[in-house]
Amino acid sequence: MPQTIHSLFKTENTDNNFFLMAGPCVIESEEVIMKTADKIIGICSRLGIPVVFKSSYRKANRSRLDSFSGIGDEKALRILAKVKETFNVPLVTDIHDAAEAAMAAEYVDVLQIPAFLCRQTDILVAAAKTGKVVNVKKGQFLSPESMIFAVDKIRQSGNENIMLTDRGTMFGYHDLIVDYRGIPTMQAMNVPVVLDCTHSLQQPNQSSGVTGGNPQMIETIARAGIAVGADGLFIETHPDPANAKSDGANMLNLNLLEALLVKLVQLRQVVKNF
Fold first, then answer.
1. What is the separation of C-alpha 34 from the centre of its chain, rounded to a whole number of angstroms?
2. Distance between CA 36 and CA 45 in Å, rounded?
3. How do residues 132-185 score in pLDDT, each as one tens digit?
């Protein structure tokens, strides 16, 4: 049966909370994934936050040929399936080509379209036709207003279960900025809008070929997102970011996640009364 956004985030005692999409950037090993999932899901259960566990089965957009890209698609997807079986939580992962949509849809509830691919008609249509929820990341090179065309492609392909995620906009060559006006702008398209609190802090295209980041600002980005009414937050987190095989420079240390979410839940309670 096709997953709907409503059923995806229907959780008891959420008290009109934001939802969270969280996990390591890429599947490195079963041990890291299961440890991270256990902690994230436990925290979210205590705080009444609907959660979708996130990890990519493969990273296709690496700067250097020798960068880690994955442990093998099927092996990684089976690890994601174990998370679902063990913890009974929905899953999200990226796809990188139209041909991958059906394969990934066998394992996950949400197909995520990477920002650089958000205008690619074939991948949007293929994701839509699986019947899964489709989360499209706003391209760093696009205005929020222009995301209506991605939304329309999915809707016209017969799928109304759409989310949009803002992950910052290009600012010069090595930095991104978040324009919080984009959240209500995209919500006006009648879709939930997520703020990616970690990729928004990337410092891409470094001379080393390894993306940098500014993780000490994750709380600032997240608090601002909740303040302006984001429906959900996207946070990549890892038990040991310094030794993570992808995006370690902008992931949140897993040990810091609970304290951050406690603050954000409190802020949400204030914001929802306005």
1. 18
2. 14
3. 999 999 999 999 999 999 999 999 999 999 999 999 998 887 788 999 999 999
List CB contacts of 19: < 8 A, sequence separation 6 or more: 9, 49, 50, 51, 52, 231, 232, 233
SS3 3: coil
- DSSP state string for 186-252: HHTTSS-EEEETTGGGEE-S-TTSS-EE-GGGHHHHHHHHHHTT-SEEEEEEES-GGG-SSSGGGPE
Does the pLDDT at position 1 exceed 50? no
* Amino acid sitting at position 251: M
Nearest to 147 by CA among 95, 122, 184: 184
Q: How many domains would you assign to the chain? A: 1
Q: Name the residue among 193, 203, 217, 198 with its Cα closest to residue 170.
A: 203
Regarding pTM above 0.85, the answer is: yes
Q: Look up the CATH number of the domain holding residue 162.
A: 3.20.20.70
Q: Report pLDDT digits (tens) over 75-84.
A: 999 999 999 9
Domain that holds residue 65: 5-271
CB 14 within 8 A of CB 49: yes
* Contacting residues for 260 by C-beta, under 8 A, at least 6 apart: 218, 219, 222, 252
Taking the C-alpha atoms of residue 167 and residue 202, their distance in angstroms, rounded to an integer, is 9
Expressed in percent and rounded to 5, the helix, strand and coil fractions of the chain are 40, 20, 40
Q: Which residues contact 67 (CB under 8 A, 6 or more apart)?
A: 59, 209, 210, 246
